[in-house]
Amino acid sequence: MSGEIPGMDVSMLGALAEPNRMAIVEMLRHEPLTVGEIASRLEVSQPHASKHLKVLSNNGIVESKPEANRRYYKLRLEPFHALNYWVTSLQKDMERRFDSLDDYVQELQKNKNE
Amino acid sequence: MSGEIPGMDVSMLGALAEPNRMAIVEMLRHEPLTVGEIASRLEVSQPHASKHLKVLSNNGIVESKPEANRRYYKLRLEPFHALNYWVTSLQKDMERRFDSLDDYVQELQKNKNE
DNA sequence: TTGGTATATAACTGTAAAGTTATATTGTGG
DNA sequence: CCACAATATAACTTTACAGTTATATACCAA
């Protein structure tokens, strides 16, 4: 009730806020990849890659499709749409504000009477 | 050389990926606030608020201006511009891809010969 | 100067998450 | 069925960070 954040899912950012996982997202930007491919390019162990992929998956950032022995992982659009929406609306609000904190403080001074 | 992420600063996301700090960003969306105001609205201790503000500050997300006894914190535009740029370019790349992983796997099947 | 308010910092504790190693599961081809 | 390859999971260690308490710093007013 008090800790409610309007649009943005904080845990999604947490999932992205780790270098290996961000690297995975960048790798998947252009093409789906298997766990083995990802682990190999990341130069981490297979369980380690699987663990990061699970975090990304739990946050809806990636989805996987079994294909024979392998699992192809790819990015999902939705969370990035949500992130884009949040950032854009934040920017709009910010740009409505004063350009510098100095201006605002000066404004505070002037309005001290009311 | 291998772990290079193009545009996005991962640590900035880490700074945002904590509920209290995200709440601070939301609070500052419309107006600069003092540490005391932030701590009070967040219902956390003053040192705790200061600590989160320091993280945000270290990542360039907020800036502060001393005014007498107090410090006004406000959001900075730049990191959100960078984030917006990253998300947008990622989305563009993604939307060039197949709509579903199924399609992609079918594509793999067809192209197995080459 | 003294007292009070606002903020920062240092030192510490607890917990969650990164990273590792070993093992289980699932699927494929012979 | 068996042997092998790809991935997932479990158990564990270690590190990083949230959160707390106590103290230091800076500013103002009387």
From TrEMBL, chains A, B:
For this protein, the record's Gene3D superfamilies field holds: Winged helix-like DNA-binding domain superfamily/Winged helix DNA-binding domain
One Pfam family matching this protein:
HTH_20
Q: Name one GO molecular function term.
A: DNA-binding transcription factor activity
Q: Which UniProt keywords apply?
A: DNA-binding, Transcription, Transcription regulation
Question: HTH arsR-type domain: from which residue to which, for each copy?
Answer: 1-97
Name the coiled-coil region(s).
none
Q: Please tell me whether the keyword Cell membrane is annotated for this protein.
A: no
> Which PANTHER family is this protein grouped with?
TRANSCRIPTIONAL REGULATOR, ARSR FAMILY, TRANSCRIPTIONAL REPRESSOR SDPR
Q: What is this protein called?
A: ArsR family transcriptional regulator
Recite the lineage of the species: Bacteria, Bacillati, Bacillota, Bacilli, Bacillales
